[in-house]
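Q: What structure does this chain adopt?
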Amino acid sequence: MYKSFDKVVVLKKQFRQSGDSEEQDAFRSFLDRLKRRECTTADLEYIRARLKARLSPTELQLFENAIHIYPYRRMVWSHNRNVLH
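A:
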């Protein structure tokens, strides 16, 4: 099937984490360091502040339809199973 494609598209910019605010820039920088396995103590504090248990009910509502990220496939499967059933 892949041989039926005659064009190649190379994506050079991530749009999911786009935006110009200081908060969005800090998040992109955090994700970049995380990707390179170069997290700092400040990064750890940043992400700990965003733990679900530390968010207000109003903040939690903002994440009702958010994408979930898990370190293991079995956790992804478990989440998907819970959402679909």
